[in-house]
Amino acid sequence: MTAAIELRGVRKEFPGGAVAVDDVSLTVGAGSVFGVVGHSGAGKSTLLRLVNGLEEPTAGSVLLDGQDLAALGERRLRPVRRDIGMIFQQFNLFRSRTVLGNVTYPLRLAGLDRAAARARAEETLDFVGLAGHGKRYPEQLSGGQRQRVGIARALATRPKVLLCDEATSALDPQTTGEVLALLRRVNRELGVTILLITHEMEVVRTLCDRVAVMEDGRVVESGEVYEVFARPAHPTTAAFVRSALHGEPDGPLLERLRARHPGRLVTVPVVDGAAVLDDLSPLLRENGVDFTLVHGGVAEVRGRPLGSVTLALRGGDAAVEAVVRGLAAPAQREAGVR
Ligand SMILES: Nc1ncnc2c1ncn2[C@@H]1O[C@H](COP(=O)(O)OP(=O)(O)OP(=O)(O)O)[C@@H](O)[C@H]1O
Fold it and tell me: What's the Enzyme Commission number for this chain (predicted)?
C-alpha cells in the first residue's frame, strides 16, 4: 500500500503575515523516502502539517494519491487522513496507557472491535521488534523503544504514507541507527511512502532516496541524495553535506595540517564513478613520490562511496608537481582535485 505526495506551488501565510512556506513544489514518489532538511524556522514543520491536512495552504495545492486535500472537505478528508501515519520527535505517546493501549487506540477509533484491534496491534508490535512488551508503560521503555511504539501506532491502521517529524532527533546515535533501520524496513517491506523532516543530514544519508533543502520557506535545492551530496549547488546544502561527511578539511584545519606535515598537501575527492583514487597509486609510483595520509573520510551514501582523502606528498619538487598535475588532468578536474 503506497501513495505519492505532491505539492504544487504551495504557500502558507499565517495571520499576521509570517510566510512559513513560500511557493514550494515537490513530488514524493509512491514507495520512496523523501527528506526535507533545513535549519530551525525554515518551514519544515509547517510543510508537514500541510501534508497531513492540519493546515490549509494559502495558495497552491497538496495532493495525496492525486487527490487535492483542500478540495475534499472535512467528511471526505477523514478516510484520506487514515492513509497518513505520523511519528514525532517526542513520541507523543499516552503515558497513562500501556504499549498495547497506545497501539490499539487508533484502531478502535477506526472502528475495529476489541479483539481485532488487539490482534492487529500485537502483529504490528511484533513487526517493530516489541513483541511481549504490550503490558508495559511508556515510561518503562527506552527512547528507542518509545519511538518503536510510536511507529507501531502510526502503522497500525496500515497507512500508505508515513510522515516523520524529527523522529530521531531525541535519540543517541546508536538508537538513531536502529530506528532508521526500522524505517527502512517500513519502506521496503510494507511499501510505505515516507516523508521526513530533519536537521540531521545523517538521516538523509542513510535513509532517503531524494532530498529537498529548505530555507526561509523556500526549497533552495532538491535532487537524488547521492547527487546532492556529491555536488551540492547551494551554500546551505554544502554546509549540511559537510556536517555529514567530515571529509574535506576547512581552512583552519588545513593550516594545522600544513604546520604538522612537511610536503605538499593534496585533497583527493572520492566520488563514485570518478577514477581519481585509482589514478593515484600509479602516479605516485611512476614519479617516486611518497605520501602520508593526513586527513579524510569516506562514507557510504545510498550504498556508494563518497568523501575525500588528504595526503602530504614527499619527493622532489618536479616529481610532486607531476603527481599533482596528473591528478588534476582534465578528466578529473571536474571532480575538484586541489
Ligand atoms: N501558527 C503560526 N503562526 C505564525 N507563525 C508561524 C506559525 N507556525 C510557524 N510560524 C512561523 O513560520 C516559520 C516556519 O516555522 P516552522 O515551524 O514550520 O519551521 P521549522 O523549519 O519546522 O522549524 P523548527 O524545526 O524549529 O520547528 C517560522 O518563522 C515560524 O515562526
Answer: 3.6.3.-
Candidate from 44, 47, 88, 198 with most ligand 1 atoms within 8 A of CB, to mutate = 44
In a domain, 338, yes or no: no
Helix or strand or coil: residue 267?
strand
Domain assignment present for 186: yes
Q: State which ligand 1 atom lies nearest to the alpha carbon of 38.
A: 21
Q: 265 — phi, psi (to 5°)? A: -90, 130
The tens digit of pLDDT for each residue in 61-82 reads 999 999 898 888 888 888 888 8
pLDDT at residue 220 in the model: 97
Q: Yes or no: say if 149 and 91 are a contact pair by the CB < 8 Å rule.
A: yes
Look at the pTM and tell me if it is higher than 0.95. Answer: no
Structure letter (DSSP) for residue 38 = -
Protein residue whose Cα sits closest to atom 12 of ligand 1: 20
Alpha-carbon gap, residue 309 to 296, rounded angstroms: 4
What ipTM goes with this model? 0.94
Residues 324 and 196 in one domain: no
